[in-house]
Amino acid sequence: MKKTDPTFRTTLYLLIISLTLLCCNAFAQSCSNPITVDLSQHADTSVTITALRSGNCCTGSNCTVFAITINPGTDLISLTTSQVTGSTTYTVNCGTPEPEGTATCVSGMTTFQIAYCKPGNNAVTYTITAASAVHASGNLNLRVGCSGTMSVTGLTTASTTWTSIYPGATGAYNSYLSQTSGATSVTVTPQTGAPAYIDYQVSGTQSGVCGTTKTETIRVYTYPALTVSISPATVSICSGSSVTLTATGVGGSPASSGYTYSWSNGATTQSITTSTTGTYTVSVNDQLACGPVTQSVSVGPFTPAAPTAVGATICTGTTATLTATAPGGIYQWYDASTNGNLLYTGSSFITPVLTSNTTYYVQDSNGSCTSSRTPVTVTVNPLPAKPAIQNQ
Fold first, then answer.
1. What is the pTM of this model?
2. Residues 6+ apart with CB under 8 A from 319
3. Which ranges in the chain belong to alpha helices (H)?
4. I need a labelling partner for 42 at 20 to 30 A (CA). Which of 25, 317, 359, 387 fits?
5. What pLDDT is recorded for position 367?
6. How far are the Cα atoms of 222, 251, 294 from residue 226, in angstroms, in the given order?
């Protein structure tokens, strides 16, 4: 245990108290000269002290008397001893004797005396325990739209009420609660427009020996809703090509290292590259205990449309101009339906001089995708015969 650890400091503090009390106050034990015990540092704490009984207090003799200072949040005090025989009691401010180990209500007090009287003057080890009767659950960290549970113990269910007390007017954010009364556990769900934090107060009647009204406060820290998008949102790939999908989380409360990503293909990186068509889903989470959000994208096959082109009719011994008009991209002209020779790249192709009907083939390329080839036929008509002229 490190010396800077709070538990170490508390333990050392209590040890010093115990040693001091044992050393210097072992015989100074009467109503007018009690052993001083300070339990004000924490509402729930305890101290162990060994002392000899000596002196009178209340209506008893052979007493050990303690002057106790407690934390404002303490409701109960109890005393146990190392005595193992007989039935022993203690009193608080000379009140009704309580059996050793039984808690006594001290809610609302800050100082009081405990007296333990028993025949004999042997050394006894005393353990004095301070405790709060009501305990609320810890603060919550929630995203907008995410639900969390607030709870309290030590209050009677029927008397319990819940309300927001900050910011704004009392009850300004009660609409986020599943219910506001008659429950020791409620659900809170921050909505769009929630402030950075909300303080909720729970109050009611203590269910134990005190029976007084008690309040506790729970703070709910709120964060924007977590969303995720995938880029590109619309994806089609050609056979043999690939695409990179990138997920981007926004909102919530990411850890110092950012969001965590989990893809349906097993990847845990923000981006993935795939050459396989199908649906890809990514789950994105932050450091809050609200669970991940998901988004999906479909990667489909892409086949560009075959080009649109119109053939031509020419006279033998001339050329034809063939033009592809759609769908756009890079047009390539060939002399065969498959393979063949690439004759020209561009939307308009001027044929060589033709003397017979000829078919050409044009395809469209868009990135790594290539369409099927469209046949374009040039019809070549023979020249008409020379006209005959008859002499007159």
1. 0.69
2. 350, 351, 352, 353, 354
3. 6-24
4. 25
5. 66
6. 12, 4, 10
